[in-house]
Amino acid sequence: MDWAAAEWADGQLRVWQGDQTLTAPCRDDPAAVLRELLLPLLVRGQVVSVIASGWPGVEPQRVPCPPPTPGPFVTVDPQIRLHPLPGLVQDRPADLIDNAVPRILGHLAKDPNFDGVLCLPGRPSAWVQISAGEVVSFRSFLTVEILSALCDLADGPDSAGFADAVGQAMSRPAALAAELASVRAERALARIGPAEAQARMAGLLIGAELAAARPWWLGQNVTVIGTGWLADCYAGALTAHGVTAGRADPAQAWRDGMRSAHRAL
């Protein structure tokens, strides 16, 4: 291939070229790590274009707008031409997302007539309103970061208590901090186990997020781009409140989005 894709997120750089995916820790110099990962794959004199999301110093695109396309290339090595993919920014409410953009692009590449809301669970989670081929608005949430600070996310939560906690938080979101403290107290007193505590905390946090994101999903066509227990939690919470969400694979959406971005060069 004469091009590759890269993503800088969560302290790691991930590079995808052809059928190879490489990752490496990366805190503050993604260009250096990109060279370390990519140059051994190239033959002498070969020049590749790299579509990169989450890249530092890139001016985001203001919504409402069509999905972003890669900017002009920056030479990070004689053999590497980096095309940064802008993030998205909005003023009211103030918000910024970047690594969700390839998945948005990928979903629209597969379904260009999609009209509705994309729910992207993750760090952060994001709700993105799409209409007439444009990103109209979005809202992101630090739900998973807060949950990971409260409990171990190595395994998914037990289902016990999750749905009730979602409903509890949606009906009384102002009591969220107090209800989280109650769950922690019950766990410390050995009244509940770690799996149930995690399920209830996840339910409370996701329920509070659903309450705040109600304008983005109520009465909307919603697709959850995610797999695993976290995406299952979002889809289950939506189903419990009358929204049957579609599902899409985030890895496939990311690859489709990067292909779409490359075609736009």
What would you note in describing this structure?
- The protein is α/β, with parallel strands linked by helices.
- The protein has 2 domains: 1-93, no CATH class; 100-265, Nucleotidyltransferase, domain 5.
- The protein has 9 helices and 14 strands.
- It has helices at 30-38, 101-110, 143-150, 162-171, 176-188, 194-212, 214-217, 228-240, 250-263; strands at residues 3-9, 12-17, 20-25, 48-53, 61-62, 74-77, 80-85, 88-90, 95-97, 116-120, 125-131, 134-141, 222-225, 246-248.
- Strands 3-2-1-4-7-6 form a 6-stranded mixed beta sheet, sandwiched between helices. The protein has a 5-stranded mixed beta sheet with strand order 12-11-10-13-14, sandwiched between helices. Strands 5-8-9 form a 3-stranded mixed beta sheet, with no helix packed on it.
- A hairpin with a 4-residue loop joins strand 10 and strand 11 (125-131).
- It is globular, with a radius of gyration of 20 Å.
- The two termini are 15 Å apart.
From the structure above, extract its key features:
single chain, 265 residues, alpha/beta, Nucleotidyltransferase, domain 5, 2 domains, 9 helices
